[in-house]
Amino acid sequence: MAMAPVNDSVTVHRLIDDPYPVYAQMRAHTPVVQVPSVKRTMLTKAEDCRMVKDNPALFSSNDPTTPMEKAFEAHTLMRKDGEEHLRERNAMMPTFSPRNLKTIWAPMYERYAAEYLDRLPRGEVVDLFPTLAGPLAARILAECMGIPDASDEQMQFWSQALIDGAGNFGWFDEPFERVARANKEMNRVIEGNVERAKAAPDQSALSVMLNAEDPIPWSQIVANIKIAIGGGINEPRDALLTIIYGLLTNPDQLEEIKATGNWSAAFEEGVRWVAPIQASSRLVLEDTEIRGCDIPKGTVVMTIQASANHDEDLYEDGHLYNALRKSQPHQSFGSGPHHCMGTHMARMTVGRLLLPILFERFPNMRLENPEDVVWRGFGFRGPINMPVRLN
Amino acid sequence: MPCITFIAADGAETVVDAGTGDSLMQVARAHNVDGILAECGGEMMCSTCHVYVEGDWLDRTGTADEDERDMLDFAPCEVTDASRLSCQMKITDDMDGLVVRLPERQV
């Protein structure tokens, strides 16, 4: 058997700016490929990505070469396996239980959504990234985490700092300095809520973890909250903006969704089309092979769910947004033990609540110049602006 | 090997031999049964492996416990007394002939 081919020509900048044509080429010619610029072996077929995620005994989340530990000032559950991972994950699970989602977080989200939508001006062009998608995701997350005194601005700054720090594969100084500042602030705000959460327990993550019968260590309580901050803002934000773009640039689909009320389909298609988390790393624990290529122990493979979601084996015209396509499974929430904890939260808040409210309130919303929308990101991807005229 | 029949929402039947000790979800995935997504891989976190157990088979498969019922709340299709998460159903020898129906969609 032979090692996977090497692709020397793909740069990180290319992947950040316009990765989909690169992945299409890879799927067609080199579905398993070593990419020196990211120091990973990329897997671009849906079947391979799913196989890796579903097989944690062979493909470990504990990749020691990432800057994540430095950024989070902790070894977090994202980079753990087995019982250790499960214990930390389960500590936070009750917050996201179906009952809590329905009875606490959904009604709260609806109230905040109405409040944030009330602030948007009609008749003029407004960028929904900083005015709606970012702050609303920040607000509900602050409440869920049990740090309601954290401002929308703080939450968004922390989130970006954690993302940039954890993705700082160049090991540059600035992202680490910024995330160090963010960590200091986060630690202060989280600690500042401890007494309140102990005195008046609620269903927030801080309270649930602190007041558990057999609590996890304080360091991991803090780490869990940071993981949620690092992942819980950009993903619903980017998903929302992607779906808005998809629907506004396909008015026939929008009309059909309005008629059927199947906003969940619009949501699922949006996260399939441009996965907010595009790639994940796994450390290979034993020599193995994938699609005929030798994968030695110690290799770090990267599942490219962005590519898996466009795989020609599963989707016709996968590069197009089509909210009316026959429902197909996608890998945007991952699979296996690290399946996204916020999945149900995102499906409910963005898919079932916000989209219908938004398009009901602004039935004639228009994206006048779709070409003005800028997309960016390799590990995480979404539009960085969404200038629409609200009416 | 117990023989299991999956009936899709459109009526298409898939009949497979199942290994005892596996979960029904694992059996479905191993045989590429469409309609079982099993996003979380069997950790009871996602509610995308929902099935309806046919007729009297519930006597042998058992019904969903409280945690499973809570998670079934996330299923997009109607949840009935016959609803189970297939990741929580372990195949035993006395399930030979089991028939389950699949919902129209899992998300």
From TrEMBL, chain A:
MF terms from GO for this chain are: heme binding; iron ion binding; monooxygenase activity; oxidoreductase activity, acting on paired donors, with incorporation or reduction of molecular oxygen
One Pfam annotation, family name?
p450
Q: Where are the transmembrane segments?
A: none
- What keywords does the record list, in alphabetical order? Heme, Iron, Metal-binding, Monooxygenase, Oxidoreductase
Q: Does the keyword Thylakoid apply?
A: no
Question: To which protein family does this belong?
Answer: Belongs to the cytochrome P450 family.
Name by which UniProt lists this protein: Cytochrome P450
Automatic annotation (TrEMBL), chain B:
Keywords, in A-Z order:
2Fe-2S, Iron, Iron-sulfur, Metal-binding
Indicate yes or no for the key word Nucleotidyltransferase: no
A Gene Ontology molecular function term for this protein is: metal ion binding
Q: Name one GO biological process term.
A: P450-containing electron transport chain
InterPro entries given in the database record: 2Fe-2S_ferredoxin-like_sf, 2Fe-2S_ferredoxin-type, Adrenodoxin-like, Beta-grasp_dom_sf
CDD domains listed in its UniProt record: fer2
* Keyword Iron attached: yes
The protein's required cofactor(s) are namely: [2Fe-2S] cluster
Provide a GO CC annotation, any one. cytosol
Q: Which domain of life is it from?
A: Bacteria
Q: Which Gene3D superfamilies match?
A: 3.10.20.30
Any idea where the 2Fe-2S ferredoxin-type domain is?
Answer: 2-106
Identify its protein family: Belongs to the adrenodoxin/putidaredoxin family.
**PANTHER family in the cross-refs:** FERREDOXIN-2, MITOCHONDRIAL, FERREDOXIN/ADRENODOXIN
Q: What is this protein called?
A: (2Fe-2S)-binding protein
